[in-house]
Design goal:
The structure is a single chain. The chain is of the alpha/beta class and 316 residues long. The protein has three domains: 87 residues, Winged helix-like DNA-binding domain superfamily/Winged helix DNA-binding domain (Arc Repressor Mutant, subunit A); 85 residues, 3-Layer(aba) Sandwich (D-Maltodextrin-Binding Protein, domain 2); 119 residues, D-Maltodextrin-Binding Protein, domain 2. It contains twelve helices and 13 strands. The strands form four sheets. Strands 4-3-5-12-6 form a five-stranded mixed β-sheet. The protein has a four-stranded mixed β-sheet with strand order 10-7-11-13.
């Protein structure tokens, strides 16, 4: 049966009478006469075959059936308003500038710009690698994807994820024939990483029961992103983390040789200025970001070793 679209005005009038408690107040809100509201409600009552209001001197009250209908209408109208607002926001998206670290920008965020643009037609996303959040504080940037301590005035943050660190290697390295069956076998291999990754390496070695002296074999790279490239080329073992490298693991570009990981007690966070947290552009970016994180988490859980032991640690 086709929808009775001619009853939409009647439903709107009914909803407003319930909200305002009288036909006169409802008419004022709808910019029509009380008689017009009364006629619309009468049409609806005739179609449903039951009274929807009890009239009394102080105004009107919905009957039991009227109250049931009102609850459904209110939820429906709220959803419609929310959807329309979302559509308007997406249509008006502008350019968004986000500060973050080099590695998460190159290894994860930049690769997903196309996904953001498909979800938000007309919007554009730009990432800038920075070591301090000053550009957010002076409003040069719109948002920050950040890790590390910090509590700044007028900045609100939302936890994105708690990274789980674990050594990763390329099948190219495994093909060289050196043993890689237990954490102690790391002594046969070159470790690649940046100074930024040293705390994670130390925490992982402690959890795995391996002497930190093995870090003497570390070949340092200028950035963690460079260490990732070295590891993918089979030139060493890197310290990765589950969300950023989930798709490497799924594609077989990298593998996790051991079943031990350490979870940082310090989260990666989304940072925005307090007075901009309801900005349509910020909200669109936040919706997209957490949707991508959810999918990456799903992929990570499907490809990480099933018997993985995860130890919590304060990595700094």
């Amino acid at each position: 049966m086709p929808p009775r679209l001619h009853h939409l005005n009647a439903l709107r009038a009914f909803d407003m009478v319930c909200r305002e408690g009288s036909f006169t107040a409802a008419a004022r809100e709808l910019s029509v006469t009380p008689g017009a509201v009364s006629r619309q409600v009468a049409i609806l009552e005739a179609d449903l075959g039951c009274p929807l209001f009890v009239r009394h001197a102080r105004g009107v009250e919905p009957t039991a059936k009227g109250l049931a209908l009102y609850k459904v209408l209110r939820e429906s109208f709220d959803k419609i308003e929310s959807t329309l607002r979302s559509v308007r926001e997406n249509d008006s998206l502008a350019s968004l500038s986000v500060l973050t670290y080099t590695t998460i920008a190159l290894e994860w965020l930049v690769q997903r710009i196309g996904s953001f643009q498909r979800a938000n037609p007309g919007g554009s996303l730009h990432f800038y690698a920075m070591l301090k959040p000053d550009a957010l504080l002076d409003r040069t940037m719109d948002a920050g994807v950040w890790s590390g301590p910090g509590d700044w005035p007028n900045v609100v943050s939302r936890d994105m994820f708690f990274p789980e660190y674990l050594p990763l290697a390329s099948p190219k390295l495994q093909a060289k024939g050196l043993p890689l069956d237990s954490p102690d076998d790391l002594k046969h291999h070159v470790l690649v990483g940046s100074t930024f990754q040293l705390p994670a390496w130390r925490a992982w070695l402690n959890a795995a029961g391996v002497d930190e002296a093995i870090l003497d074999r570390m070949r340092f790279c200028d950035t963690s992103a460079q260490a990732y490239r070295e590891a993918r080329d089979g030139n060493g073992i890197m310290m990765g983390y589950h969300l950023i490298n989930a798709y490497d693991l799924a594609a077989g570009t990298l593998f996790a040789p051991f079943d031990t990981a350490v979870r940082d007690s310090r989260a990666w966070r989304l940072l925005v200025m307090e007075d901009r947290q309801d900005d349509p552009n910020i909200r669109a970016f936040e919706r997209w970001l957490f949707s991508e994180l959810s999918e990456a988490e799903r992929v990570a859980r499907s490809v990480m070793p099933q018997n993985m032991t995860i130890t919590n640690a304060a990595i700094s």
